[in-house]
Amino acid sequence: MTKSFKKIFFPNVDLKYWNDWKWQLKNAVRTVGNLSEFLNLQSDEIERISKVQTLYPFVISPYYLSLINPKDNNDPVRKQVVPDIKEIEIVSKNSDADPLAEKEKMPVEGLIHRYPDRVVILVTNNCAVNCRHCNRKRNWRENETALNIKESINYLKSNSEIREVILSGGDPLLLKTEKLKNLLDEIYSVDHIKVVRIGSRVPVTLPMRITDELCEMLKRFPSIWLNTQFNHPNEITFESETACRKIQYAGIPVSNQSVLLKGINNTSEIMKILCQRLQEIKVRPYYLFQCDRVSGTEHFWTPVKTGVNIIEKMTGHTGGLCVPRFVIDLPGGEGKASFSPKNIIEHKNSMYKIKTYRGKIVNYEDVGD
Ligand SMILES: *Cc1c(COP(=O)(O)O)cnc(C)c1O
Ligand code: SF4
Known about the structure:
By secondary structure, the protein is of the alpha/beta class. The chain folds into two domains: 2-89, no CATH class; 103-365, TIM Barrel, CATH 3.20.20.70. The protein is built from 15 helices and twelve strands. It starts with a helix and ends with a strand. A hairpin with a 2-residue loop joins strand 10 (344-348) and strand 11. The structure holds pyridoxal-5'-phosphate and iron/sulfur cluster (SF4).
């Protein structure tokens, strides 16, 4: 948080409250009138945001709002959470409310089974911020769905090939600790479930949610992993770093899935700084996602070559642990596919011509099997 932000806008709020995630959620900014107090919006912008909001509402935690430089309309944090008229103005024939056909892959409402050994369970529709690029923004106006825990657990029980459960949403860490604990107890009661992965942006958008109580609860379970979503170096702050460290101290590895976003992080320079900073806080860059073809996100889309070039410019030039895999979740629910830089230039019999990270072409002779 920028200290001046709190001093200006919440001068009389005790730090104890500012650092309380429930206070943050209660005071999250959800109306354009409220937002304009913070960002000094002009009347035409207020009008545009109001229009977008009827279709795609916004939510911004005061903490995340404090990362925005109010003088910069192109601020990378601002662009992720402040509605843009392009969300409703650009209507592309290539976009869809649900391009990954998630609804078709749900044997139980809220449970997506696309790959053989792992499923996703959507546990809530709520988030600490509504990311404008969210691939489930279609759900924002839906009422909170009741969790089908019983049915989901029965599904897990009767499908012994499933070994990993991914909790998603919405943001699973917006559930009360007690509720999450009960859910984890149920999931781990199924013998063949070995791993639970939590997908949560809370370390980035509401780091105070990572309380001692939450970590104490999580650390009792055998194998929990956390995937978060840092998209820009400005999001790595004292608070978000502390949140990641606390999760790590609880024995939970933290990985990162960035979304490639035009005007925010679509250069190798920014991505390299982001991923190096992530490595420094021991958060492993796992995936760099092509922005999904979701209606209302067209203005963030980049061509495939942008992602491939970013990975090519990072590979070898910085440590391998800083380089994520560039993947595209294929429309129609075909699954994620890697789009890697091409480095096999030629392959004849046992001879390979390989391009090194410096661009030099080198021969590599294979062995027989
Ligand atoms: C992304 C995703 C997963 C996880 O895929 P990994 O490649 O293991 O990260 C699982 N199920 C669904 C439906 C997904 O979209
Ligand atoms: S935190 Fe995740 S689910 Fe929530 S709005 Fe952002 S991208 Fe969507």
